[in-house]
Every structure is written in C-alpha cells, then in structure tokens.
Amino acid sequence: MGLQEEILALAFSIHGEQDPQLETLCPAAEQMLAARLRKGVSIDACRDCFLTACALLAIAMLESVASGGLESMDMGTLNLRFGAEATRLRDLAFSLLSPWTQDSFAFRGVRT
C-alpha cells in the first residue's frame, strides 16, 4: 500500500465514513505537510505522525468546505476566522509534525 492510500484509509477511519472528497484532499494535505518538513527530514523519519497529520489535515479541509469554512472576515485588518472544529483539527495536524517541521517551536520550561 502506498503512502497516499495509507493516508486515505486513515482519513476514512478517523472521519468514520468514506467521503469521496477525501480522495482529492488527502494528496493535497500530503503535499502541504511534506513541504513543511525541515531540510534533511524524510517522511520515513516521522511516518506515523506524518500519516496521522495528513489525514487530520484532509479532514479539516473537508470540514471547512462542508461548513462553508469562513465564519467571518474583517477587511480593516484582514482577519479571517474559520470554523472552530476545522481549526482544531488543522492545529492538531501541525502540532503532531512540529518536531520535524521548519516552523516548529517547543516550549521546554523556564528556570528561575
């Protein structure tokens, strides 16, 4: 089974149904997250987290599309607000991969 098939199967499993739109969204999620990996980090180095993050991101995209996605927009400051559920799934997907991505940040504690 290839990477895209594994992501799709996991997305179906997490989502609870085999929505055909996930077949389009899973490859897009894979490409988005693969591009965020730090230079020198392979997908195999974080395979389980990568698969899960891709599935969650694809589901978040699906939720955004299904719900209309955009809840509000303020042109004065260009503030876009998306539905809470899709945002939580997207944030979870990004946090799963944070140790391997370019824009990762981890709070380790403060010494006094």
What does this structure look like?
The protein has a two-stranded antiparallel ribbon with strand order 1-2. The radius of gyration is 15 Å and the shape is globular. Helix content is 56%, strand content 8%. It has helices spanning 3-15, 21-36, 47-66, 84-97, and strands at residues 70-74, 79-82. The termini are far apart. The chain is mostly helical and 112 residues long.
Q: Which key features would you list for this structure?
A:
single chain, 112 residues, mainly alpha, two-stranded antiparallel ribbon, 4 helices, globular
Rg = 15 Å
Range of strand content? 5-15%
Number of strands: 2
**Biggest β-sheet: count, sense, barrel?**
2 strands, antiparallel
Q: Given the helix and strand composition, which structural class is it?
A: mainly alpha
Number of helices: 4
Q: What is the molecular shape? A: globular
Element-by-element helix/strand order: HHHEEH
- Distance, first to last CA: 51 Å
Integer average pLDDT: 80
Provide the fold topology:
Blueprint: H1 3-15, H2 21-36, H3 47-66, E1 70-74, E2 79-82, H4 84-97
Antiparallel strand pairs: 1-2
Helix pairs in contact: 1-2, 1-3, 2-3, 3-4
Write a compact overview of the structure shown.
The model has no long low-confidence stretch (mean pLDDT 80). This protein has helices at 3-15, 21-36, 47-66, 84-97, and strands at 70-74, 79-82. It starts with a helix and ends in a 15-residue tail after the last helix.
